[in-house]
Amino acid sequence: MKIALLGNPNTGKSSIFNLLTGLRQHVGNFPGVTVDKKTGTLKIENENHTIIDFPGTYSIYPHSEDEKVVYDVLSSPNHTDYPDVAIVVLDASNLRRNLFLFTQIYDLGLPTVMVLNMIDIADKDKLEISIEKLQQLFPEASIVASNARVKLGKDRIIKAIQSVQSSNDRTPFLDGEKMVEIENKSKQEEEAEKRFSKIDSVIDTIVTQKPENKIRETKSTKLDKILTHPIFGYLIFAGILMTIFQFIFSFASIPMDFIDAQFGALASWVSTSLPGGVLNDLISQGIIPGIGGVVIFVPQIAILFFFLAVLEETGYMARAVFIMDRLMRPFGLNGKSVVPLMSGVACAIPGVMAARTISDWKERLTTIFVTPLMSCSARIPVYTLLITLVIPKSKVFGLNVQGLVLFGLYLLGIVAALGVAFVLKLIVKSKSKGYLMLEMPAYKQPRWGNVGITVLEKVKLFVINAGKIILAISIVLWALASYGPSDRIEKSVVAAEKYGEQNSLSEEELADLVAGTKLENSYIGIMGKSIEPLISPLGYDWKMGISLITSFAAREVFVGSLATIYSVHDDGAENKPLKEKLLNEKRADGTQVYTLATGVSLMVFYVFAMQCMATMAVVKRETGSWKWTFIQLFVFGALAYFGAFLSFQLLS
Fold first, then answer.
1. Which of 149, 483, 504, 551 has its CA 20 to 30 A from that of 386?
2. What is the distance between the terminal CA atoms of the chain, rounded to a whole angstrom?
3. CA distance 92 to 207
């Protein structure tokens, strides 16, 4: 069977999905669109069934691109994702609003399961729900209560799926109403009025209030007075972000060092175990260092997504969106812009796509334009490598300085996004004005199973997506770094050996000179030397320049590219950690390459630079034009170059 999972936002739909599917999940796209399609496998009596988790919606009639997916599927029985069974998740503590969507789906004639979730919150609110009355209203639906957050109700939901049946002569909740055309807004409004009117006429027979209890409401109100305060709210939010960055540096170093050591040992083992030759060099000097340069940052990525998942689970993320709305408006951004910008902290691609919920063209365009300035998870490998290289492990007022620098980089991205948005506000004209409509979910204890699944899913996507790109680029880089035009490398090696003999260089010094000469006269060395005059004012050498170019595929490739280049440089013989190789790198005049000025310059460059081809493609698709994509590329490129230039010159 194909089973559709539907419901309003903040009804615990994701918890139900995780409860039913566990780790048997997959993320792709719905056919023909870029909206995420989350599917999972549910096993019932040795048969596997597919559950599709649809975007949250308040109605089958859409107001955004995400919600349009629901309409497109349910309005077409021939659609590839048209369900055999619809599970509609309702927030038991807010039944009136949730029943609206349920009655629409029920009236389509689909076999329908009603899941009354968050039954514990309804109990705290002293709400008593009559399932018997609900069953009388919807005789052909299967109705069950659940509390997915504590794993209650899975067996009941499975039994309901097995027992539910379709019926062509079902008595609809709203007589005479059929699914209307998506463009017919007046008909939709008329239906909504009728539907809510009937829900209002029966809701008091279904939901009754026990003796009033205001304890939970009082606690929630007290918390919101602090967390959404016009001053303390921002300080608390900043403190939470600071805590996250402190954790990233304080707790990730041990597993990172372990991963780095294992990849180094693996490269050494391959180098000594396999027969010498091209394949050996490719694997030990190209593939293993390149992939290892990204996998090493999995602990930091996991910590970031762990905290983001906890903030989402507890209900705090909605408060962060609410307080940030006050900050966004003077800069020409809609309150809804906060969601794409917050999403951009994880990845700019879903952040750009999340801007579809903004109806005003100008505010949507501005949001799309500035979202890539939010420091995404792909920048973390770059930031952390450079911070550990040039920022000392010290503390100020008990705070880790490296964590403070990471926080500062994120803050710089936010300030830049607001600044660019303000400029666009002055340039792009629009008469309409946007608004923020936001539902505040109840505060809840985080469901650790959901947090774990989220972290595992995000890390897996990061490793697989980045790994595929880096594997391909590592192979290309290794080839370009290992070979050169004609006999240029051979001639340069002879000249280097002659120079070594004349100047009585030690064996180690001669080996280093020969390795460096080989690399400089390879294809990649020639390319790097050609762009060095352009990047030297920023403090970069040609090796950094090559890594900057390759990281246009994806920012995290910068680290993998450096790992491959330096592995080829030492001929795979030493397999030292990349950090140690970079710290030992010297210029021709004997000065250190990776200084504070160079490191900060690189960090500032990566805060601003539009280095992600996938994001550029999505921006083009979402704006419908290459014009804004290339304007974005030029503006961010200029910001990156001049920001890096100023940083290097000031700190040199």
1. 483
2. 65
3. 9
Kindly give the pairing relationship between strand 2-7 and strand 25-29: unpaired
CA dihedral (631, 635, 636, 640) positive or negative:
positive
| Per-residue pLDDT band at 551 (split at 50, 70, 90) | confident
The set of long-range contacts for 515-519, using a CB threshold of 8 Å and a minimum separation of 24, is 515/569, 515/570, 515/571, 516/569, 517/492, 517/493, 518/489, 518/492, 518/493, 519/481, 519/565, 519/568, 519/569
Cα-based torsion angle of the residue sequence 434, 435, 441, 447 in order, rounded to the nearest 10 degrees: 20
Q: What is the dihedral of CA 442, 443, 449, 455, to 10 degrees?
A: 100
Grouping H, G, I as helix, E, B as strand and the rest as coil, residue 209 is strand
Residues 6+ apart with CB under 8 A from 480: 522, 523, 524, 527
pLDDT of 586-637, one tens digit each? 887 888 889 999 999 999 999 999 877 777 877 887 787 889 989 999 999 9
Q: Which of 48, 47, 51, 49 is nearest to 38 (CA)?
A: 51
List Cα–Cα distances, 200 to 53, 63, 107, 136, 196, in angstroms: 29, 24, 18, 16, 6
pLDDT one-digit tens code per residue, 27-39: 666 666 556 778 9
Over residues 364-374, mean pLDDT: 90
* Alpha carbon distance 97, 632 (integer Å): 41
Per-residue pLDDT, 167: 61
Distance CA 94, CA 97 (A): 6
Q: Are 113 and 86 in contact (CB under 8 A)?
A: yes
- For 612-629, give one letter per residue: b (16+ CB within 10 A) or e: beebbebbbebbeeeebb
Averaged pLDDT score across all residues of the chain: 82
Contact assessment for residue 563 and residue 267, using Cβ atoms and an 8 Å cutoff: no
H or E stretch including 395?
A: strand 395-396
Name the phi and psi angles at 64, rounded to 5.
-150, 170
CA distance 441 to 383: 34
Phi and psi (nearest 5°) for 390?
-115, -10
